[in-house]
TrEMBL record:
Protein's name in the database: Dihydrolipoyl dehydrogenase
Species this protein is from: Rubrivivax rivuli
Name of the encoding gene: lpdA
UniProt-annotated location(s): Cytoplasm
One Gene Ontology term from the biological process aspect of the record: 2-oxoglutarate metabolic process
Molecular functions (GO terms): dihydrolipoyl dehydrogenase (NADH) activity; flavin adenine dinucleotide binding
Limits of the Pyridine nucleotide-disulphide oxidoreductase dimerisation domain: 358-467
Assigned keywords, A-Z: Cytoplasm, FAD, Flavoprotein, NAD, Nucleotide-binding, Oxidoreductase, Redox-active center
Amino acid sequence: MSTKNFDVIVIGGGPGGYIAAIRAAQLGFNVACIDEWKNGKGGPAPGGTCTNVGCIPSKALLQSSEHYEHAGHAFADHGIGLKDLSIDVKKMLARKDGVVKQNNDGILYLFKKNKIAFFHGRGSFVKATEGGYEIAVNDEVLLGKQVVLATGSNARALPGTPFDEEFVLSNDGALRIGEVPAKLGVIGSGVIGLEMGSVWRRLGAEVTVLEGLPTFLGAVDEQIAKEAHKAFTKQGLKIELGVKVGEIAVTGKGAKKGVSVAYTNAKGEAQTLAVDKLIVSIGRVPNTIGLNAEAVGLKLDERGAIVVDDECRTNLPGVWAVGDVVRGPMLAHKAEEEGVAVAERIAGQHGHVNFNTIPWVIYTSPEIAWVGQTEQQLKAAGRAYKAGTFPFLANGRARALGDTTGMVKFLADAATDEILGVHIVGPMASELISEAVVAMEFKASAEDIARICHAHPSLSEATKEAALAVDKRTLNF
């Protein structure tokens, strides 16, 4: 075995890993990045879950399915007539795969541009040495002075019901369904469940979502969640809350094969759901498989996550961890910010991640986005606050788009008017939320946003009006 020396070795090429590697290279370090994702031909596919079976492909399918739904239901309102509308699922999936490949290739280009050595395979600890840590990958041993662990997460399966990715699907299998199922079941009404449920509902599937919690989107501001629930129900998503899932079995033979889900509803009544496919989206677990953490004494918690401090340092000197494999929200952009911060800390700088201003987005229609605290959190903390809302129904651009569902909601400190949270359900919420993130980073008040000129007509005017509503002086509602 040959040994190659590096200042920084990053294990994992997802959003946290490849961004950490690029930032470290920008800072003058000699960097290696190890990633084992493979494309359909067995070649390298860096980008992690996000690029390969998460954020990117799901958005591609959401876009395709939204076009199809608009063509079938909304175009007529614009005077556009279509005959014999159809969906070519195979072509839709091929487009999705093409988008994924563009992102994979883009990351490989960035590695080359930044002179980062890329190793395609699984990286694992061998031992600690005087000069750092030995990391094995394929037939080589790399020596790194600093190691950044960015190994991501895996879908959590229901106990006793492993994913077969044909009938019982994780997010991976949900992105590869070859034809529109007549009936689709989804366990879990979180981000993945709602997004994938929306994709296949738009294409014609009858979708039932089973959620164990008694409330819908418990992490979302209650007022916003209720608005979203109303919209999804109107669209045709059947959402059952407070259920207890029992036995799950693959039934039938050949073309009649499907999945049977036994469950108890919120009233305590025994029910059975028969579907063609079942998506299980009940969360994700940190991925440390094959890392050989015990060889160097790397500390893991009871969930299997790598234990880190506030600056992403592990219990081992010179070893860091970021993203889904550590504490905090499992969000690609959170992982990216941690990756940058760690690279800068290795360089002796003061990298920083503000967890209070990390935005969240669910890319359904309507989109849901938020940053900061919810109204229920403020009430629980006993903090005095003011609230202001503005509906997209009263926004000129939303009317022109034909998409007036939802609202923007501001929460501000009752005494200082500092923005404590902004919550949006409606068109382009994923883009609108960035203004709120910037405002909160600069400790802006609701009045600051209310005084800023917003272009007319634009969806962002709803943000301004919601800020005005905090002081009960909206102009257009």
